[in-house]
Structures are given as structure tokens and as C-alpha cells.
Amino acid sequence: MKCYPAYALFTSLLIVSANAQQANGVAAGPSEDLQQRVQQLEQEVSDLKRVVRQLQTGTAQGSAASVVPTHATAEMPVPAPVRTSDVISEVSAEDRKNLDFLRGTTLNLGLDTYYAYNFNNPVGRVNLLRAYDVLSNEFSLNQASVVIEHAPDISGGRRWGGRLDLQFGQATDTLQGNPTNEPRPDIYRNVFQAYGSYVAPLGKGLNIDFGKWGSSLGIEGNYTKDQINYSRSYWFMFLPFYHMGVRTSFPVSDRFSVNYWIVNGTNQVEATNGFKDELFGFTAKPAKNVSWTMNYYFGQEHPDRAPALSCGPVPVQPGLCFTAISPAPNGRTHIFDSYMSWQPIPKLTFALEGDYVIQRDWRIAAPGESSAPFHTDGGAAYLQYQLTSKIALATRAEYMSDRGGLYSGITQALKENTVTFDYKVANGFLMRYEWRRDYSNQPTFLSDVQGVLKKDQNTATLGLVWWWGRKEGSW
Known about the structure:
This protein is of the alpha+beta class.
């Protein structure tokens, strides 16, 4: 039978008390005997409390002097010393540093899988204009994720931190796989985010991140568990996925922060031109249950160089051999992005997003060139209701006017409606059942006949999402 130190000590003290009482009962009268017993018991209880406190706080060192009652004499049996090492292991200074580091670090793992069926039975089993659920009639691994974060802790005296997100699976190819945006995408393909943070002691704290991070243009994000629907909107796929550079956020008050970025470009770890894009925006909480984000992004997304086969006798890293494009297109990109969410009651969430994008090839048209801009505008509306702690129902309606075909390749009006049913099997395991209808005023979507396009596509999807780790809330 296993005996814990506190229980053994209490038993020993009772034995001591009984022996002392028997000894005193022979030499003293009834009144004196009772008084001595009371005093002795009070002293023993006081000693017992002291030892228990030492065990609880870890101050006891396992020596006999730290656990034996101070009034013990040669006439009293001394209980065996309690070894607190049985309860609390001694920690070296070096181990304590490691434990302190791990206390502020979170390690999180995620697994996102799905099965989707497209009722068009498309050639190649491909769902067009989808960001992540790109395959039909296939058991698919959307992404496997590893997130390591050591966030700044001002209250703990640490102003610096960092984060690393590793990602594997087909979503990786969507997020980072376009050679026109990324000269060497394979180098960074599995690094979704990697940035260091510092909170400067200015006002309420100026937050500065340097590195690569997921874009906050658009209300939807990378991790499915944090989204209202399983599939992503057109706007998620069209707006930037990530940036490389410096971003800052300054909280003017508890309800209003201003944001500024300077980055290489959209979806570019390595820049395709020498122009640095910028973002100006703010995040506001006009009420406790309302949040609103406004962004203006200004950039130039046209490359000023092209890959070359040879750089001559000078050795360079693979993929770093270029030839200049002259004259290079210098048209600007403007993105106006705004979204807000509102929870009138804890179980009900509304969200709205509106976007307007302008892009030109040339700022000023030369002979034979055109500065006519591409225009893409529209938005999305979301509604989610938490029926029970395990069941939720959500829907999304979306519209995109793609004049010039900047997103889809042709001028068209795209629309989609999505209904999502959530069943949370357990904390960290989510099943999502989804019906989605995409449709357009132009033939756009694949059919079961090669070369024949349809104006709509309907899909049914089952998503299975697992996640575990110490980070709470959204990733």
C-alpha cells in the first residue's frame, strides 16, 4: 500500500501523542493531566501544520530537522524524517531556465482533411475557383500544420517573441506556389509564417513584427477551425495570402488601433520588383460585441525581371539568374478592404466584408500600351448560429464583379451560396458538412465533357478537422 509523506507524518504524531499521554497520565492528576494533554496536542497540531506548509510550498529540504516537531525529546519516539524529494524534484538553475522558456511557448498541431463531390462530374475531378477544396470525389489532405509561438509577455518582463507556422498538404500549393509571384517558391513553400516580434515601450506598446506573416486583408484566414465555413470565399482566394516585411500596430486606446505595413509585395517573400508596397489601416471595437477592420493597400505587382537560362561564368544560387524587363510595367494596385463582425447574443454571429480592387499595367500609357484598369469589387455576408455546445449552423452569400478578368480570367459576375453544418465531436475534433453552389453569368465551370463549360457547379463536402496544443482561441 502506497503511503504519502503527510499521511505518514500525521500517523507518527498520533503515536507520539498516545505515548506522551500514557506517560503523563501516571504522574499527574486528572486536572493537570487534561491541561497537559491539551497543550501537547495544540503543539503537535501546530508542528503538523508547519510541516504540511513546507511540503506544499517546496521549502522543506528533506532533513530531519525540517520535519521533526521542535518539542520532541529523548523520551518521545521520533518519527522518520519525511523526504520531500519524493514529492518535489530538485530543479537546477539551468533546468529552471528551460522550464521558464517552455512556460511561455505554445506548440500546436493541426490536421485538416476532406471529401468533396462535384455534381458536374468535372473532367479531371477539379473544383474550379476553389482555394482549398480543389478536388472532387477524392479523400484529400488539405493541410497538416505545426504552429510554434513564443509571444511577448509584458507582464513577465519580456518584450520580444516570435512565431513559426509550418504547413504541408495541398493548401500549401495554393498559398505559395505561383512562380509569377514568387521567383523561388520551393524554398519557402512549407513556411507559412515566420516572424519575430517586439513591443516597443511607446504609449500602450508599439507592436512590431518582422518576417513573413499571413495577410489580414479579408475576413477569412488559413486555419479551417477558426472559420465560419469549410470552403473559402472567392475573396480569400483573390486577396493576398501572405507578405514579407515589417508590420506595426499601435493601440491608441483599448478599442482603437492603427496599423501600418511596408512589404515586398503580395504573396512575395522575394520581391519581383524594387517597389515596396504599403498598408494603412485601423482596427476598432465600437462596442463590446462589435469589431471593425479597415485597410487600404497600395502596391505595384508587376515584375521588372525575368528568369534567364545563364548568368555567365559567375556562379549564383539556383533560380537567381535574371534578365531585366525594359520597359517594365509600373501600374499601381489599390485594395480597399473592410470587414466587421457583430455578436448581438453569444450564440449568434453576423459578419460582412466589402472589397474594391483596382490594378493597372501602366501608370501612363505609351503608344501601343493601355492604362485601362482592371476592376474587381463585391463582398460577402456571413451568419452563424450556435444551436448547442456541439452543433452550429452557418451560411455565406458572396458576390464578385470581375471586370477585366483579374481574378477569374474573363469578365463575369460570380456568385456563391454556402450552407455549413458543424458537429463538434470533442474539443479539438470538428466535423463539417457543407453544401455549396457556385454560379456565374458566363460559362466558367468544368463539366463532364472536355472543353464544355457550365455556368454553375454544386458540391457537397465533409471536412474533418483535428487540432491540439496549448494555444487557446484562434491560431
